[in-house]
Amino acid sequence: MLSDKDAVAMLAVKDVAAAARFYEGVLGFERQATLGDMVAVYRSGGTRFNVYKSEYAGTNRATAMVWSVGAPEEVEKIAADLKARGVRFEHYDLPALTREGDVYSAAGMKTAWFKDPDGNVLSIVSG
């Protein structure tokens, strides 16, 4: 019923303009549409995601969105680029993964986590 339909990630934020500065200025996304001061729409690869104003912004403590970036070394390259842009990475105690700097690895896979200004947990992963 839904398996052949596109899904859209929804990221709750307190201030769409402030979030837009992060998603556009730091992460490099181009805004596709705006719905007043309530929603900003972005395209990422063949999908899209919406950043929307919500009183519940910052309440999700789990990973909200993941980018599959290709080979494991691509995770390291992107993490270094993001760090140079001021992104602070999250460090977790995950016994199944080995951390080297800001990047975790296990069985040929690499990943790193960071947050947007509202605390949404975002991740890059080799895949």
Could you please describe the fold and organization of this structure?
The protein has about 130 residues and is of the alpha+beta class. It has one domain: Roll (2,3-Dihydroxybiphenyl 1,2-Dioxygenase, domain 1), CATH 3.10.180.10. Helix content is about 20%, strand content about 40%. It is built from two helices and ten strands; from the N terminus they run βαββββαβββββ. Strands 5, 6, 7, 8, 9 and 10 form a six-stranded mixed β-sheet that branches. A hairpin with a 2-residue loop joins β7 and β8 (about 105). The longest helix has 13 residues, at about 70-85. The chain is globular, with a radius of gyration of 15 Å. The two termini are about 25 Å apart. The model has no long low-confidence stretch (mean pLDDT about 95). It holds the Pfam family Glyoxalase.
Query: What's the CATH architecture?
Result: Roll
Average of pLDDT: 95
CATH uppermost class: Alpha Beta
Number of helices: 2
Q: Largest sheet, described in full?
A: 6 strands, mixed
Record field, number of beta strands: 10
State the CATH superfamily name: 2,3-Dihydroxybiphenyl 1,2-Dioxygenase, domain 1
**Cα gyration radius (Å):** 15 Å
Question: What series of H and E elements makes up the topology?
Answer: EHEEEEHEEEEE
Protein name: VOC family protein
Organism: Zemynaea arenosa
Pfam family, one: Glyoxalase
InterPro entries: Glyas_Bleomycin-R_OHBP_Dase, Glyas_Fos-R_dOase_dom, VOC_core
